[in-house]
Design a protein that fits this description.
The structure is a homodimer of 650-residue chains. Chain A has 650 residues and is of the alpha/beta class. The first copy, chain A, has 26 helices and 29 strands. In chain A, the strands form eight sheets. In chain A, strands 6-5-4-11-10-9 form a six-stranded parallel beta sheet. The longest helix of chain A is centred in the middle third of the chain and has 29 residues. The first copy, chain A, is globular, with a radius of gyration of 28 Å.
Chain lengths: 650, 650
């Protein structure tokens, strides 16, 4: 069982069920050396909150005494840990030593026989610098071994590592074929050499290519990743588990991990840390320890820092602020910044997982912010939904403060209301019609006074593109004369509030939504305190509520009926099977395993229409997953149903 | 006594001596409320490492019982703390309540009488939004009070707060006049409203203006600053002490401080912290505490985080990496990023304090990095020292990787050696002749593959400027044809190693240094292992050593003699008084209090010539301070002397 509890784009907090208990991801599996155990398994659990650990089945297999004990009492007794245990297979040893003395099926059977929770295929470790043909051949061998090994796994979960070197095409293909074997656990392998040489740009491409091919409903493990500096970027790309012996290796070399990099104890004059090791301690105190004591102290510090960072990441996911954490962390090393920038190339993929809105404000951190999927998403919705018909003047307000856009121009905009013109302001997000200035992420973004040049260029690009796509002829920069000019423009445009309501509807649900939803007598209920629109009633029916937090709509049942009638399938639909229909009609949530199909355009946190196999409306709610996730996850909620449509009201 | 122990630009780790012991700055003085003490003084010292605290003399004075106890037993007994204690004077209360019931001289005498270590003038709190005339009037009143109060201070150090609202001119003037009173302790006051409303851009301008006017040898205290998010930026600008009651106030409101911002306990799902409060604790556990217990817990957490950050800052200073820490921290909020960018306006001032080289690589973090003083410094030295005579071709290599610049072009450059042409590569730093590609910060910088657009523009600006200033006519972009073209160029240029040695000398010491230092038979001693130049001998005398870590020279006595003869005073000189001369001739360091004058162009970590009052050479060494610091500090080393010139060798 693997189930999303909270998410932020591809990043997710999940529950992963094993025979030895639940694991909450993202998490780190400390590597335990069965020959030299620095900390006992229970020590790891109690002192550091370790939920799952990893040890090496190859080493156990090759050490006669360990082998016997493991076969007799099981791996959990061997390492003294009653929680879930994963084992590696010897693949990494083949990378280090060139070869291993074990056959693929043997080591899978051995892992199964010693009672491992998650065993690993003996895959072919492919170095970053082989040619694409070699990478392809290694991948074919890995897939062949995977097919055979799956038959030997018994009750054990078998991790099938994605290989393919630095070639995205090969990685994605490998991931896709392994994904079809449905093992339920996928490491990304062969990446240690990239991490060791700070090749983060290629690492990002490798992770994204692998994720694209893998089933989104299975946990993804980044093999050998153990530095807290990298965790947030990897989690942002959808990695769920990490494992590493770095905490010990670094400790033996006197190196201390921090979320912003590594420092050698020899160069420490201060300990900027309050972990149980550093609290009240001095660098001199650590340096004067005996070797073994110091190794244990530094390894403890390293684990504390790793788990602190994982909790910081989970907290950021729950706040919807993981991008900002990543953008800060990636400034710890210029090569990590390269990695962050590589995300710009994957905007289209990332956008599919980007929630419609986040609980937190969008903080600008630098030029990289313009490549966030939320920025691309805004433009996509704007171009798809914004109806420019009837516009004859486009006014652009430049260099406006960013929150909220029209507040500083309220007087001028009030004067313009009712005239046949479109006013936009240009922002980090490009063109913003003021009717949309309360919606996420426009009103919820905080941007410095001056944008970086790259952000300014991106903004100008957006504005140009918007104007070209919408066929505007006139483009007036805001000036002293503009209001007078506009006041002289022709004709009325109706109630500005209704115009706002319609424009938001077209923006959120796509072109045509406004005419479907607002056809009839429109009545707007406003907040007494803020005077903002709260509810939209049409012909006496409550069709929409406007959420204060993101300025977007929740769809009420009458609204859902209107959109269902106006939009043909598959638009906005989530199709559930017959086992689910009656529950959803009662207002119960849609679980992923009952989803048959889904509009490919639905994104997490978007409003959607739940329908049965014959496209009859069953319920309205909010999607928590996108299409590929709904079809891949075996458990968990796919749609949070708001209102079900009772059968008699069909 | 106030003395620099380590520094990084304006940032410094200092020893501050008080009647109740030494304080190492930068540090935070927690505000202790004499009426409600959440933690005892000794608790603060033992659990959090608090060295000095601050309490409010006005509150003590206005509470009869406290007043009596303080007058009888002293303030240290009153708050139960035997370390140094600072008191505020009621000025902040005048900001909060509009007025205070105490006279300026009364409160100074009261602070003196209760045995305070650092008391504070009752200055006039000037709000950010007054007009410049009002600010000026308040400042005149503050200075008048300061003059009178200084006469009443007794043995107590009297802190004289700089006021002047947001007007840099007024701030600087106020600072200068207070500085002349030589009280030895200067808070920057009136900034709480700026910090409360995140006006960090103006805060930066206020701090810089104040620092410009204040004597660099006195501690500077940023009044009311208590958020760890801001500490690094303030320290970078030369603030040494902070004080705040925020740790308690935030705790009462359920708010937790982190180095990247504030979070409300109600929104915490995870505790990303291993401090003694958070270790093994959950947000739910904290939420379920009784109010008073929770306040103590959160206040403890807040203090741990503050002192962790201060240790991180001190560690960064000792590593020479404070800029990178600040550039990361300022991405925690877009308004802090505005503050970081405001530093670009103060480049000329910051450059005066920027060390010639740092122990750490320069990491690029974003467009703001181009405004670091190290970048401006490089160009300043290049334009001052680089001798372009004889050049007839300028070849620019674009888009080269950055470390080391010429490595990728080694073959081509080898082919060019010996021809009358100058090859430069263009980089973040602008034009880099390959002869300089091993020096700091060129070889010691790590830059992403792609520069941000702003950095690229800055680079092009540098290259253009370099070419214009040097009068190059021909500008050839690197291409397939360039090597052939250059090989056909006329004439020889002599030994490329000697050319490198000379160009570095002109770069480091200024135009004319190479001809003075290398006049004679030049012999180069190279490292056997790296083949790099290590020592430069001229006519058998050891004039220069090339440092491996930054590619720059240490000056040997024969070299110093040559530069002393070639360059007229005050160039490169530090003039010491007669009490110091004999010690320095013996190779002992120059202490700041013996410095009479100093070349205004000397920067921290630059080589310098120590001379007596009649400009006779006394010693050669490395300056640790710039001119204004040497003339202001009353203690500490000004020049680390490498070799003294014995009197008989005059």
């Amino acid at each position: 069982m693997f189930e999303i509890r909270e998410r932020d784009g591809l990043a997710r907090i999940c529950r992963f069920e094993t025979a030895h208990g639940l694991v909450e991801t993202p998490t780190l599996l400390p590597v335990v050396n069965p020959n030299i155990q620095l900390f006992s398994g229970e020590d790891l659990r109690e002192r550091f909150g370790v939920q799952m650990l990893i040890t090496n089945s190859y080493i156990i297999d090759r050490t006669e005494e360990l082998r016997q004990r493991a076969l007799e009492n099981g791996v959990h007794a061997l390492v003294g840990f009653q929680g879930p245990i994963m084992t590696d297979s010897g693949t990494f040893q083949s990378h280090v030593y060139g070869d291993v003395e074990v056959k693929p099926l043997e080591i899978v059977r051995f892992q199964r026989d010693i009672g491992v929770d998650v065993g690993t295929l003996l895959d072919v470790f492919t170095e970053p610098d082989v040619d694409e043909g070699t990478a392809g051949a290694h991948v074919r061998e890995t897939i062949e071994r995977a097919r055979e090994s799956m038959l030997e796994r018994g009750e054990m979960t078998l991790a099938l590592p994605v290989q393919g070197s630095v070639f995205p095409r090969v990685r994605e293909q490998c991931a896709r074929e392994l994904g079809e074997l449905d093992s339920g656990f996928y490491p990304i392998g062969g990446v240690v050499p990239l991490m060791e040489s700070y090749r983060y740009r290629e690492l990002v491409d490798v992770i994204v290519a692998s994720k694209k091919g893998l089933p989104p409903g299975s946990p993804v493990h980044l093999f050998g990743a153990g530095h807290p500096m990298l965790f947030s970027l990897a989690v942002l790309l959808g990695c769920d588990l990490f494992d590493s012996s770095s905490y010990v290796k670094f400790a033996r070399e006197g190196r201390m991990m921090f979320a912003d990099g590594t420092r050698h104890l020899a160069e420490m004059e201060y300990l900027p840390c309050s972990c149980p090791v550093c609290r009240g301690q001095t660098p001199e105190g650590l340096r004067s320890m005996q070797d073994e004591e110091r190794t244990r102290a530094l390894a403890s510090h390293n684990l504390h820092v790793c788990f602190d960072e994982l909790r910081a990441i989970k907290q950021a996911i729950s706040e919807g602020r993981l991008w900002e954490l990543v953008e800060r962390r990636c400034r710890c090393h210029p090569n990590l910044l390269d990695g962050l920038r590589a995300l710009a190339r994957h905007g289209e993929y990332l956008e599919r997982f980007e929630p419609l809105s986040r609980p937190a404000a969008l903080f600008y951190t630098g030029p990289e912010t313009v490549h966030r999927p939320a920025v691309a998403r805004y433009e996509r919705h704007l171009l798809a939904g914004y109806s420019g018909e009837g516009a004859n003047v486009l006014v652009e307000l430049r260099d406006t403060p960013h929150k909220p856009y029209s507040e500083h121009y309220r007087k001028e905009l009030d004067a313009l209301a009712g005239y046949r013109c479109h006013v936009i302001v240009s922002s980090l997000f490009g063109a913003v019609p003021p009717e949309l200035d309360q919606i996420y992420p426009i009103a919820q973004s905080i941007v410095p006074e001056e944008l970086d040049m790259e952000s300014r260029n991106m903004r100008d690009f957006h504005v140009e593109r918007f104007m070209n796509r919408k066929g505007y002829g006139k483009h007036l920069q805001w000036s002293e004369d503009a209001p007078q000019y506009l006041l002289a423009a022709e004709g009325e445009r109706g109630d500005p509030d209704v115009r706002r309501v319609g424009m938001i509807a077209d923006f959120q649900f796509g072109a045509g939504a406004a005419s479907a939803l607002l056809d009839g007598t429109v009545e707007l209920v406003k907040s007494r305190r803020t005077k903002k629109i709260r509810n939209v009633l049409v012909d006496g029916e409550h069709v929409l509520s406007l959420r204060a937090e993101d300025g977007l709509y929740t769809l009420k049942l009458p609204g859902a009926r209107r959109l269902h009638a106006a939009f043909g399938a598959p638009r906005m639909r989530v199709v559930v099977n017959s086992d689910s229909v009656e529950f959803n009609r009662e207002g119960k949530n849609v679980f992923a395993r009952f989803v048959v199909e889904c509009d490919d355009e639905i994104r997490p946190m978007e409003e959607c229409l739940v329908v049965d196999g014959s496209d009859a409306l069953v319920a309205v709610g909010r999607a928590l997953l996108n299409r590929e996730e709904m079809l891949s996850f075996g458990s968990g909620v796919a749609v949070k149903v708001r209102e079900g449509l009772p059968p008699d009201e069909k």
